[in-house]
Design goal:
Helix content is 93%, strand content 0%. The chain is mainly α. The chain has one domain (2-111).
Length: 112
């Protein structure tokens, strides 16, 4: 039973670390989104001022290397953020399973 308690404590520490990391990755994601949107807007305005047809501007902007790079960085930051969320959910599930197992063992011990 001590092994289960120790494992539950380890999972609690992992969860705390994961939550701290989620804050970092969430901030990185928000910054990447901001940077991408600002550059996209600037490039769209430049193309419009250059006389490009409105319907072509957005598609054209996506192919500008600077914009594509920031979009890529945004997408990577989003993937990291979502992976961190999944890690947190996985740890929480593992903790619930450990708690259930601990509860079963505790009730079995009390019956004996």
């Amino acid at each position: 039973m001590n092994d289960l308690v120790n494992e539950l404590q380890t999972k609690t520490q992992q969860l705390e670390r994961s939550i701290r990391q989620l804050r970092v990755s969430g901030t990185d994601y928000a910054k990447a989104e901001r940077d991408y949107k600002i550059l996209l807007r600037q490039k769209c305005l430049e193309l419009r001022d250059g006389g490009m047809a409105i319907g072509l501007i957005e598609k054209t902007c996506y192919g500008i290397p600077e914009v594509a790079e920031l979009r890529f960085k945004r997408d990577v930051a989003e993937a990291v953020y979502k992976a961190n969320m999944e890690a947190i959910n996985s740890i929480k599930l593992q903790m619930r399973l450990l708690e259930s197992q601990l509860s079963r063992e505790w009730s079995t011990t009390m019956k004996d």
